[in-house]
Amino acid sequence: MIQYSLHCSKGHRYDAWFKNAAAFDEQQARGIVTCAVCGDGAIEKAPMAPAVARTDSEKVSLSSSHPDALKFRELLRAYRQKVTSEADYVGDRFADEARKIHFEEVEARGIYGEATRDEVAGLIEEGVEFMPLPDLPEEHN
Ligand SMILES: [Zn+2]
User: Fold this and answer.
1) 5-9, 69-73, 124-128: lowest mean pLDDT where?
2) pTM of the shown model
3) How much distance in Å is there from the Cα of 41 to the middle of ligand 1?
């Protein structure tokens, strides 16, 4: 599993998981990597991919100075609110439910929940479509 920070031709940035670097290249070449914000298909890897800490001591790259950062955070917040208000929360059954929907064993519906990294890898392997639910830090106003 590899996490890339991606950006589209309109400058939207978001993070996405891929099975490996080759999987990203292959999906990008087929034009099926699209912007999480606007759906644009002209996606490129951001030059500096922000890392996500996997352990308590691991460092992460953060920024606060970009003038558009607040705007995009609001978009992500709105997206998260829309998902969490309209989709069914399935908790740690997410991988099972997403798989059932993908293979049309149940009626298609919006769901959200949690999955382990192994489960995420399995879903990608099987071609099940999903995207990370943005996890936003609380406001400090
Ligand atoms: Zn975009």
Assistant:
1) 69-73
2) 0.49
3) 8
